[in-house]
Design goal:
The chain has 362 residues and is α/β, with parallel strands linked by helices. The chain contains 14 helices and 13 strands. It is an enzyme of class 2 (transferase).
């Protein structure tokens, strides 16, 4: 199978795309010919080549700002569309798959106009702008939330989940790494991670909130690489461990409770493994989509939510304590999270790709 994947802008678009590409390589071996397209000035331009995949650059930007900015963005899209046609002629893909970001639109439209099978993947519970631009032209749409189904063409949409769920489900627990973080595998463990970069305000909140957690547990707080904490911040609190970064999938299957943002990738991973969660959606994302992502888990009893405006030492401690003190509720949250999980997402998406390719070649 010759697969061209377009993605860009943020890890939420890029990592699911890489997960599907890795799964295709594992399934098809040398028969898998995979190339990526993305922005020439965003994280995908360095990350994807580092993963060993051919990378074709485009230059695009979002339709934001004033009239001049939007005119410039449209001109960039038209230039990217012409360049995308050249990439398709050169690579000759059997299928083109878009994982979001504005860079997806010109390649998906070019593929459609050239008669190549097209699929888009929507990670969030609200359809992003790039996918809105192309969803009427594509052959297939994969979504991760039932809430999306009402926004999309039901005839060509399937609820198959996020490929990162498959990665999480297959990840092995690394006990040696777990112990290297100062953690005891026999104790209940809370993981608190509020983004890879962290923030000084959240660090200050944790200094007040975490010592209040007196339940029999250990806490791993990931403070973020841009906001290291004073090592003495939790002096005299041996059950609290602070790191600036963690290989999350290496330990996630051994976590009893996670406090985290509500990005699509994170939620795909924790539902695949059935980890109870306290979600603090970021209010700084497009269309407040993390709030709506979190709402799906809350409505299913898989998580509780604290909006950032209401996040303080008292609300966080109360939420943690109310869950840890109720083992029946914890188990119920685990079961409900697993019901939402899509651990077979990669397999199911690749199966559909084969069906689409076969149908077009008849």
């Amino acid at each position: 199978m010759r697969m061209m994947i377009v993605t860009g802008g943020t890890g939420g678009h890029i990592y699911p795309a890489l997960a599907l590409a890795d799964a295709a390589k594992q399934r098809y071996g040398e028969q898998a010919q995979i190339a990526f397209v993305g922005n020439d000035d965003r994280m995908e331009a360095s990350l994807i080549p580092e993963k060993g995949y051919p990378f074709y650059p485009l230059h695009t930007s979002g339709l934001v700002g004033g009239v001049r900015g939007k005119v410039k963005a449209v001109a960039q899209m038209l230039a990217a569309y012409r360049k995308a046609k050249g990439y398709i002629h050169s690579f000759r893909p059997d299928i083109v798959i878009g994982f979001g970001g504005y860079v997806s639109a010109p390649l998906i439209l070019a593929a459609h106009h050239l008669g190549v099978v097209t699929m888009i993947h929507e990670q969030n519970s609200i359809v992003g702008k790039a996918n809105q631009l192309v969803m009427k032209q594509v052959d297939a749409i994969v979504c991760c939330y039932e809430r999306c189904l009402s926004q999309l063409d039901a005839q060509k949409t399937r609820l198959l989940g996020n490929p990162r769920a498959s990665v999480a489900a297959q990840a092995a627990f690394d006990e040696a790494y777990f112990r290297s973080l100062g953690l005891d595998p026999k104790r209940r463990t809370i993981l608190i991670v509020m983004g890879s970069l962290g923030s000084s305000s959240v660090n200050d909140l944790m200094k007040e909130a975490l010592p209040q957690v007196k339940e029999d547990c250990q806490i791993l707080y990931v403070c973020g690489r841009n906001n290291p904490m004073d090592p003495s911040a939790f002096q005299g609190q041996p059950h609290i461990h602070v790191v600036d970064y963690v290989e999350q999938l290496a330990i996630l299957s051994h976590i009893d409770l996670i406090v985290c943002r509500a990005g699509a990738t994170t939620l795909a991973e924790i539902t695949a493994l059935g980890v109870p969660a306290i979600l603090v959606p970021s209010p700084y994302v497009a269309h407040n989509h993390q709030f709506y992502n979190a709402s799906v888990l809350v409505e299913a009893d898989a998580a509780v939510m604290i909006e950032e405006a209401n996040l303080n030492a008292q609300t966080l401690h109360e939420a943690i304590a109310s869950i840890l003190r109720d083992p029946i509720r914890m188990e119920h949250m685990r079961v409900c999270a697993r019901k939402l999980g899509k651990p077979d997402a990669c397999r199911d998406i690749l199966d559909w790709c084969e069906q689409l390719e076969g149908g077009m070649n008849k």
